[in-house]
Design goal:
Blueprint: E1 14-17, E2 20-26, H1 29-38, E3 42-46, E4 57-60, E5 71-73, H2 76-85, E6 88-92, E7 105-109
Antiparallel strand pairs: 1-2, 2-6, 3-4, 3-5, 6-7
Amino acid sequence: MSYNIYTNLFYGQTISSNTMSESKKTTDRKAIKRWVEDRNGVPAFIKGTEGGADGLLRIHFPENSKSNDSFDEVDWAQFFDSFEKNNLAFLYQEEKQNGEKSTFHKFVSND
């Protein structure tokens, strides 16, 4: 069984199956910031994608990355400005199936 994570998810709704851990979708700033900071992540744009004022949004985990020079860290105000301007939602996992903290996340349309 698989799920199309880009459709049929609403604020606060969760999905799960036998093959994946529970995922959640949110637009709540505090929840997103808490999740990122709990995993030592930082808001960032991918270098070279800054057309105009925004770039391609990412959550970067510098401690777990070999490509730190591919990202431009941004402050939370810049991050959320781009996040909201692009009508995005944050799809994320709290834990992997084995109980470890997960860093799985995606930005999806909030339509």
